[in-house]
Design brief:
The chain is of the alpha/beta class. The chain has seven helices and eleven strands. A hairpin with a 3-residue loop joins strand 6 and strand 7.
Length: 231
């Protein structure tokens, strides 16, 4: 499991932002072509913002699978602070990133929102799973539940599926997991992920999703977006 790798160290990506890299398991938390670019393209542009545009609503319930370094959370929070929406954000992360690593990454400074650093670190490193109502229209809850035990029905509009890749964490990309994600979404809800493997797409379809290939972020040809059928 990636959580057992002791050697995750900061590495700068091509857009100037930082990620974590483990030489032992040869895995990054984000794309080496650009951590911020990847998160913005996959999860914000083709996830949150796409759902807001098609739904006509200004509030979205987000579920993230793999909170990691919290970059997707921060980008969503910034959209709230910019007045674009309000977000209720639930994240599953059984193996949280340590505070020292988060401080070194300094995502808030990279995003030109240094004032968010202290509240961001407080929420990311908290041991409890209570809901936090944060300034700007974001409500955040972090859960240690593994996705294989997560069982909520019709509670979310958008799933950010950001686990480590199938070669590293194959247990995260199973038919059962996607069936749970399908159940967790409301009708017309969407799941977005950077992964575009054919077997992953077919498992999503077997779980009941309508799946489309979209242009990927810089350095990646494709990504996947899966929509729960109406009804």
């Amino acid at each position: 499991m990636p959580a057992t790798a002791p050697d995750f160290l900061p590495r700068r990506t091509a857009d100037g932002s930082l990620t974590l890299y483990s030489e032992r398991i040869d895995e990054h938390y984000h794309s080496v072509v650009g951590a911020v670019n990847e998160s913005t393209h996959v999860y914000l542009k083709n996830g949150l913002e796409a759902w807001l545009a098609t739904s006509g609503k200004d509030h979205v319930d987000v579920l993230e699978i793999g909170l990691g370094t919290g970059l997707n959370l921060l980008l969503s929070w910034i959209r709230c602070l910019e007045g674009k929406c309000t977000v209720s954000y639930t994240a599953l992360e059984p193996y949280p990133v340590k505070r020292g690593q988060l401080e070194t990454l300094d995502h808030c400074a990279d995003l030109a929102w240094p004032g968010l650093q202290d509240p961001f670190l407080e929420r990311m490193t908290s041991d409890h799973d209570d809901r936090w109502d944060i300034s700007g229209g974001l409500a955040f809850r972090k859960l240690a539940d593994p996705v294989q035990e997560f069982d909520q029905a019709g509670a979310f509009d958008v799933v950010y599926f950001d686990a480590f890749g199938p070669n590293t964490q194959p247990e995260m990309w199973t038919l059962e997991v996607f069936q749970r994600m399908h159940r967790a979404l409301r009708p017309s809800g969407i799941l977005v992920t950077y992964c575009a493997k054919g077997d992953v797409r077919r498992r999503m379809q077997a779980a009941g999703f309508a799946v489309e290939r979209l242009a990927g972020p810089p350095g990646k040809r494709e990504m996947l977006r899966a929509t729960r059928f109406l009804g």
